[in-house]
Specification:
71% helix; mainly alpha; 145 residues
Length: 145
């Protein structure tokens, strides 16, 4: 005879689903970070005369490192870029990256932009539906009065 009520079982099941969604969202963001880093490195091997193309490649690599370190979570990134501390911040940063790499004429960038948008939506949904896990917040130091 089980002592757990039906509502407790549903809450337990929802907690497990939420944990799985969080893991999937982190993996999606990590894969996007890896893709963005590879995309940035690949741009250096193309013969182009405009400097903006190569400057964007440097930004791709920097943003890939920031996103990858935020997923771990690396203390330096979550301290100085605190918007990357939760799923909503990571999702909104991924929307920014998707808009940055969007290019109709280049298939890898266009596909990557769509992937980043889908992964961003997943991260924002996970961040908005679950409880926020504060990693760098000391609740005793907050004073209301």
């Amino acid at each position: 005879v089980s002592t757990q009520s039906t509502w407790e079982l549903i809450n337990l099941e929802m907690g497990c689903q939420q944990a799985i969604l969080r893991i999937v969202a982190r993996i999606a963001a990590g894969a996007g970070a890896g893709y963005l880093g590879v995309l940035g490195v690949m741009r250096f091997f193309e013969k182009r005369s405009d400097g903006q193309f190569y400057i964007l490649a440097v930004y791709f690599i920097i943003f890939a490192a920031m996103l990858g370190l935020a997923i771990v979570p690396f203390p330096f990134v979550t301290k100085f870029f605190s918007f990357l501390d939760g799923h909503v911040g990571i999702g909104l940063f991924m929307v920014f990256i998707a808009l940055l790499i969007f290019d109709w004429n280049r298939g890898l960038e266009f596909g990557g932009s769509l992937y980043f948008l889908l992964a961003a939506i997943l991260n924002v949904i996970v961040g908005c539906t679950g409880q926020k896990q504060y990693t760098n917040l000391n609740l005793q130091s907050i004073s209301i009065f």
